Give the backbone structure.
Amino acid sequence: MIYGAISIAGIAKPDLITFLAAALLVVGGAFGVIIFRNPVHSALSLITTMFGIAVLFIEQQAQFLAAVQIIVYAGAIVVLFLFVIMLLGVDRKEAFKAETLKAQRPLALAVGIIALGEVLLLARTTWATGAKSSNAPVGNSYDNVTVIARAVFSTYLLPFEATAVLLVIAVISGVYLAKRVQLGADVERDPGTANLRDNEVIER
Amino acid sequence: MSVPGSWYLILAAILFSMGVIGVLVRRNVIVMFMCIEMMLNAVNLTFVTFARMLNDIGGQVLVFFVLVVAAAEVVVGLGIVVSIFRRRVGATADDLHILKG
């Protein structure tokens, strides 16, 4: 019985404790990302969220995705964030008090709460049939990788190839964008010139 | 009995809303990116939950593709951020008002 009402009765203790701990990690980490003033702390907090999500993946018999989540998100994406933060030296604190846009924070909070309410409202209506799939079962937890591999290399072969192309494009564009721009040597990261001069010609 | 799928969906909705709030509240471009990653993760959790609820591996495969797209997005986005910071010292989205008429 998966479509359960919100009642703790009948849920196995280990499952419940794991879920609650992971949910705490997820929500706490997300809160930290929003709250911390130092971007480095935000990145470390993001790792906490990713880790909690990975635990929830294992809870739901998605072992392969949990491993990928840790390797790709915590191991690659967040490290990339940290690299950029260190490279640019922007790890100074954001001026939190200064509010350049009038009433930005309360409005943002209101929008977020409205979004949450909308999602929960939508979840209450039955817009999905809820019918079980018949052609691609998840399988048990021992052959998760096998089942995913079979799906990726048969049904989803074309999207899989497309992601390969996408990654190549991303690599090329990353190299191109991060290439050093041939500016006049005086403008390059000179703190005094916060604004670009008007008739500055930039060539790659 | 394991934890019902609706709990996971509610958690994912909460995480998504926190991502929305983060993007709207923060002005540091890199932290805004992190909040977008949080939203993507919330959707991933939803996909995996539906894969379990409906017993269909398609949900997990989609998460795989979302991961790839997220990686590509971060690479391009951070490349843009780096190239912006080469020319300006400002660290917030407010400093990027060149396009303002």
